[in-house]
Amino acid sequence: MMLCRFYNKCVVLLLALLCVTSCSNIETLTQHQRSVNYVNLARSISQGIGYNVDKEKALIYYEKAAALGNSDALYSVGIAYEEGLANVKQDYNKALYYYELAALQNHAKAYKQLGEIYFSGLGGIDVDCKKAFDYFKKASDLGNPDSTSVIGSWYCDGLCKSTPDYKKAFDYHLKAAEYGARRSFSDLGKMYYNGSGCDTDYEEAKRYLELAVVDNPCLTYGAYFYLGQLYAQGFLGEKNFHKAMEYFLKSVSYDGLNCEIAASLLTLGDYYYYGLGVVKVDHTKSLEYYKKAQVEGSHCRSDHINSRIEKALARCKNPS
């Protein structure tokens, strides 16, 4: 009898425990589902899908979902504070707060935003290269293609006074390109051109450089310069100064203080100084390009380019 009573008590206790566990799971699932519904509603209102576009109302639903711990909502609220959207006052500290909460749930884009804020010191936040790199690396490990591309540039350019590692840079850029990160196309083209972190391959250089300029020409003046070099140097067959000049002109048609634009301007100056390809000798025009190259070169870290510009300007004073 006593054994029976003990058994009955155990059964009752076990059922009670199962009930508590089950109820807890149901509550958690319901909370999660509510947060997902809020996020879907916010996206629909924000994009005008079935509703009038209303960014402020969308943010209200994102905040409701964020309060329930939804990582996508936390990220979206962070974006609102970072960019000052939906009449929210721009506040980078609040943006950091929401990104960090989302990152705790391994939200790749939140890690990326954290990396950008700490790398650039946005909103008065202290620059912290170590934090920035770690956040970009975590975002990359979670499959964020843009962050993978950033890590590639980090190793390639030695950002934050780090030591360049071209092999790692190449591997990250190649991985980013496979993910679909367009920003890596241009860098891969340059690396194949220079044999940095990989074997020199002019055909592969051309392929990636062309992908870069087709995708986003306004950000790829460097790609235009290297495409010009491929044809000017005859790396793809016979030299083609006409085609090369087309690319150099495209390179210098965009605003921006850049070493590769300086190199394009210098090259165009040489074209007119020596009368290369399809242009006649014109020392006045060559001097114009050299002076523009000097302005661009003041922001260029390449001693080689700056030295060439100085020699070109000196030569232009006494043309032979």
TrEMBL record:
Keywords: Signal. The keyword Signal applies. Transmembrane segments: none annotated. It comes from the Bacteria. Pfam families: Sel1 (PF08238). Residues 1-25 form the signal peptide. The keyword Ligase does not apply. InterPro entries: Mitotic_Regulator (IPR052945), Sel1-like (IPR006597), TPR-like_helical_dom_sf (IPR011990). SUPFAM superfamilies: HCP-like. This is Sel1 repeat family protein. It comes from Candidatus Cyrtobacter comes.
